[in-house]
Structure formats: structure tokens, C-alpha cells
UniProtKB/TrEMBL annotation:
Residues 12-449 form the Amine oxidase domain. PANTHER family: UDP-GALACTOPYRANOSE MUTASE (PTHR21197). It comes from Thermostichus vulcanus str. 'Rupite'. Transmembrane segments: none annotated. InterPro entries: Amino_oxidase (IPR002937), FAD/NAD-bd_sf (IPR036188). This is NAD(P)/FAD-dependent oxidoreductase. The lineage of its organism: Bacteria, Bacillati, Cyanobacteriota, Cyanophyceae, Thermostichales. Gene3D superfamilies: FAD/NAD(P)-binding domain. It holds the Pfam family Amino_oxidase. SUPFAM superfamilies: FAD/NAD(P)-binding domain.
Length: 490
């Protein structure tokens, strides 16, 4: 029953620690953040206002994960009704889109143009559907593509739709076409559940961080508190595997931690950089090829109790840079301390290398207010306060060759570091949700409890289901679909 050292106190690391702790095993969690657990799923707090990094819906196809959420938070897990619409040229459209809603709001002229452009796409189909743009135009016609698909996709991924491979559209919006939308509108009960539609989800009363803070408390009560402000900077290994990690606090103090088993949820690229002695050149080169997309939220407190009823709004207007706007009070009333005001999160998808990321807090607050006014969402309300939350490495990028890079890194780690397991989103470089991160953490812990590698964590699919050996879908286990640039097979 040797000590397990877990790197990172996000959903994956805390789930691993929770499982080990409840079986009475010793565990130490090292977390880089000086104040908070939860990682990308934390709840940030500013002047009593609570908000997510993004908006974190809790839903899973895994009954075990759903049950675990209930076990940890009980009645604090609320059910939230989803309302999220698209804002385009000053008009709110239902999301998922419904043809009658679209046509009623766009008026007869635009409707006629949309139908003509749809007919054109049907009568003169593109010979080959190479890009995302080709695929959507083929299904919906050019007018609807420009209105509902192009701008938001380009804001999120930073890639023109004409350069995104069509496969992504086929996976991501599977089951959705003009014909299926019309069928669903006319015969709502006859249509199956379309992949993109989930109208209810669970959400902790105080935001997603409440889940992770509760596990932090349980670990502390069991005498195994999470060690905050301990960023792992070196991982020392030799013939037998890892024997010690070195962590550093923000003040520069150093702490050595010995262990028998190690679970890492830190970004895979950083893990390879931390190895002492260094990994062989091909492994380090593969790690350096891994890339991330970053994300920042501008939080604005507004002196108006009910600005709009949505949980979030997709901003398809190309004249503003904001991609999505969260209204945290509509996720849970208790996210704001004062019912007379509203707390919005304006989400900007970007890269730390962009000049945009370098803008000061004051510049970002001004930009966000200007864009809100331009969109007509503020009306006569005033901004009372605001802050900016930056989330680097929010999305692991699946670019050309990323799978090959991961294979090279995995092969090396599995051969020389048998007492290390990789878990979680950036830990495995997988663009997946909390439930997936949790399942990989739980299974990593169970491997340690069992004293053998009973579970291959790479067989957990995006729905947090474990695919047994022999299951043909195991070959596809892994990440949610993300856009691929044309000509790159990934
Ligand atoms: C905008 C956005 C919206 C999302 N929406 C949803 C949603 O609606 N539903 C959902 O289920 N999921 C959602 N997710 C995904 C969810 O946030 C992740 O799946 C989950 O947080 C991954 O957990 P993790 O533990 O693997 O990693 P993380 O949450 O990234 O946690 C890793 C932890 O490791 C720490 N760490 C990193 N390096 C070191 C180091 N060197 N030493 C020590 N500690 C270190 C970090 O500080 C962090 O606390 C969303 C994500 C984003 C970015």
C-alpha cells in the first residue's frame, strides 16, 4: 500500500484520489494553483460572483459517473433547463435551429432566398464534399450556412470553414439536415434524439467547482489534504520508474515528494519537459509538437436583474469578436450574491500567441462592454464591475500528426515508467468532458488498488464508457470530434 502521488487537482486527479482514499489507501495530490482545485472545471469567484471557465454542464452516458456526482453532492446537484439561442443581426433564433422559427423571424424575402439557395444545393450538388463549408451548404444551402454555421465555427477554432475537413461536420452534426429538421418540426415525436440536442442537464448549486471543493474537503477530513501551490517541475526517474517529483511554490520554495505510484493529469507536453533525466530526442520532439487552444472570459456585472433568459447565447454576428455569452444566474440563482444584478461571461476563443491575449484587463473590459452594447444586449443598463479570467491550454488541439506524437510519447513512457499512469484531458491530450476525465482517474486508481493494469485508460471513450477488449469501437475510443484542416489526417 505505497503512496500514490497525483499531479493535478482537476476532475481526473481528484477522482483518482477520491477512489484511493475511500479504499483507505494513502494519496497525495499536488496542485499548481495556489488557491483552488477543479482545474478547467473550477468555479472562479470575484467579489462574491461565481462563474465557470466556459459553462460546465454535468451530463454523462455513464451511470457510474452520474451516481458519483449524486454521491458527492446529493441535493446540491440541481437540474437546469437549457435555453441557449443564437444571436444574429439583432435577432434571437432557437438553438437547435427550427425551420419555422428561422423563417418566421427572417421574413418572407429572406425565407424565399434561403429556400432557393437550398434548392440550388439540392439540384446542383457539389461533386465532392471536401470541406465543412461544402458539407453544410450541401445540407442546408449557402444562405443558412452563412447565417448559422460559418461565423461561430470560425470564432471557436480560428480556421476558415473552407479549410476544415468535411468529416468533422459529418461526425459533429450527424443526423442534422434540412430534411430532418423539417420532419422533426412537423412530427416532433417521430424523430430520434439528434446528437447535438440536450435540453436538461445537472449543475451544482454553486457551480462546478463545488463538486471538486467537496472532494477536497473529504480528502482533508481523511487526513490527506490536497497540497495547493505545488507545481510539479521535475519528475525524477531511473530504471525502476519514477521515484520522486519536485514541486515549486509561487514563492520559489521547492518540495520533493517520493512515491510508489504516480498519476499525471498535467499537460502531456509539460510532463515530458519535466523528466529528469530528459527523455530521448524523438520523444521530446514529439511532445513539443503538441499544441493547445486558449480561452479567456471577460466577466461583467450589470445593474439589471433580467437581461435575457438564456443560460448562454451563441454570437454569430461577424462584426464582434465575442463567441458566446454566459448568464451565470440562469445556471443557478446562487451564482450571484445580489438578485438585482446580472453577471455575464463573454467568451473569447484565442491563442496565447495572439496579440489579443496580450490585451490588458482594462482594454478587454472596454472591448466587452462595447461589443455588448453593439449587440443590443445591454439596453440602458450599466456595467458595475468586471474582471478577466484567462484559461491557457483550454483545448488540446488535434492537428496533423498529433496521434503519431502521442504514440511516440506513450510508447516511451509505458516502457520506462511502469509506475506512471496518464489521465484526464490535457494529461492524455484528449478533448473530452469532465465525465471522461473522472472515469480515467477512477480507473487509474483501480489499477493501483488491483496491483495490475486491469484497465487500459485509452479505451475510455468520449462518453466515459470503458470499451472492453474485442469491442470494435475500441479502436475509435478517444476524443470528441474536432475540426481537421483539409489534407491533414491527424
Ligand atoms: C470552455 C470549456 C467549456 C467546457 N464545458 C464543459 C461542459 O459543459 N461539461 C463538461 O463535462 N466538461 C466541460 N469542459 C471540459 C472540462 O473542463 C474538462 O474535461 C475537465 O476539467 C478535465 O479535467 P482534468 O482533471 O483532466 O484537467 P484540468 O481540469 O485541466 O485539471 C488539471 C489540473 O492540473 C493542474 N496542473 C497542471 N500542471 C500541473 C503541474 N505541473 N503540477 C501540479 N498541478 C498541475 C492544473 O492547475 C489543474 O488544476 C469544458 C472545458 C472548457 C475549456
Amino acid at each position: 500500500m505505497g503512496l500514490t502521488v497525483v499531479i493535478g487537482a482537476g476532475p481526473a486527479g481528484l477522482s483518482a484520489a477520491y477512489e484511493l482514499n475511500r479504499k483507505g489507501w494513502p494519496v497525495t495530490v499536488l496542485e499548481a494553483d495556489p488557491a483552488q482545485v477543479g482545474g478547467l472545471s473550477r468555479t472562479a469567484v470575484y467579489q462574491g460572483y461565481r462563474f465557470d471557465i466556459g459553462g460546465h454542464r454535468f451530463f454523462s452516458k455513464s451511470p457510474e459517473i452520474e451516481a458519483l456526482w449524486t454521491e458527492i453532492l446529493g441535493a446540491e446537484m440541481q437540474v437546469c433547463q437549457r435555453l441557449s439561442r443564437i444571436l444574429y443581426q439583432g435577432v434571437f433564433f432557437d438553438y437547435p435551429i427550427r425551420p419555422f422559427d428561422v423563417f418566421a423571424k427572417l421574413g418572407p424575402i429572406f425565407t424565399t432566398l434561403c429556400l432557393l439557395s437550398y434548392l440550388k444545393a439540392r439540384l446542383f450538388p457539389r461533386p465532392k464534399l471536401v470541406s465543412f463549408e461544402d458539407w453544410v451548404i450541401d445540407q442546408f444551402g449557402e444562405r443558412l450556412y452563412r447565417t448559422f454555421f460559418k461565423t461561430y465555427t470560425e470564432k471557436v477554432w480560428g480556421i476558415p470553414c473552407s479549410q476544415i475537413s468535411a468529416d468533422w461536420a459529418a461526425q459533429r452534426i450527424k443526423g442534422l439536415s434540412m430534411a430532418s429538421l423539417i420532419r422533426k418540426t412537423l412530427f416532433p415525436k417521430g424523430e430520434g434524439v439528434i446528437k447535438t440536442l440536450i435540453d436538461r442537464f445537472r449543475y451544482p448549486r454553486l457551480g462546478p467547482g463545488q463538486m471538486w471543493e467537496r472532494i477536497q474537503t473529504l480528502l482533508a477530513e481523511a487526513g490527506q489534504p490536497v497540497q495547493l501551490d505545488r507545481k510539479v517541475i521535475q519528475i525524477h526517474w531511473d530504471k525502476g520508474g519514477i521515484h520522486r517529483v519536485q514541486a515549486r511554490s509561487q514563492q520559489g520554495e521547492r518540495f520533493g515528494v517520493m512515491g510508489q505510484h504516480f498519476i499525471s493529469t498535467m499537460p502531456l507536453r509539460s510532463l515530458v519537459r519535466s523528466l529528469v533525466p530528459a527523455a530521448p530526442d524523438p520523444v521530446r520532439e514529439a511532445a513539443e509538437q503538441l499544441r493547445y487552444r486558449d480561452f479567456l472570459t471577460v466577466v461583467l456585472v450589470v445593474d439589471e436583474p433580467n437581461l435575457f433568459p438564456d443560460n448562454w447565447i451563441y454570437i454569430h454576428d461577424p462584426s464582434v469578436r465575442v463567441g458566446r455569452i454566459q448568464n451565470f444566474k440562469n445556471w443557478s440563482r446562487d451564482m450571484v450574491p445580489n438578485p438585482e444584478v446580472t453577471c455575464l461571461g463573454l467568451e473569447y476563443f484565442c491563442s496565447v500567441a495572439d496579440p489579443f491575449w496580450q490585451l490588458s484587463q482594462a482594454e478587454l473590459l472596454t472591448l466587452a462592454e462595447t461589443e455588448l452594447r453593439q449587440l443590443g444586449l445591454l439596453k440602458k443598463a450599466h456595467i458595475l464591475d468586471g474582471t478577466v479570467i484567462r484559461a491557457p491550454k483550454a483545448y488540446p488541439v488535434y492537428d496533423h500528426g498529433y496521434q503519431t506524437h502521442i504514440q511516440i510519447i506513450r510508447a516511451f513512457l509505458e516502457e520506462v515508467l511502469p509506475n506512471l499512469q496518464l489521465a484526464g484531458r490535457n494529461g492524455m491530450h484528449r478533448y473530452n468532458n469532465q465525465d471522461h476525465a473522472m472515469m480515467t482517474g477512477l480507473l487509474a486508481a483501480r489499477n493501483i488498488l488491483a496491483g495490475e493494469r486491469r484497465y487500459d485508460l485509452w479505451r475510455v471513450n468520449q462518453d466515459a464508457e470503458y470499451l472492453e477488449e474485442g469491442d470494435p469501437s475500441a479502436a475509435l475510443a478517444g476524443g470528441r470530434a474536432v475540426p481537421q484542416v483539409i489534407g491533414q489526417s491527424g
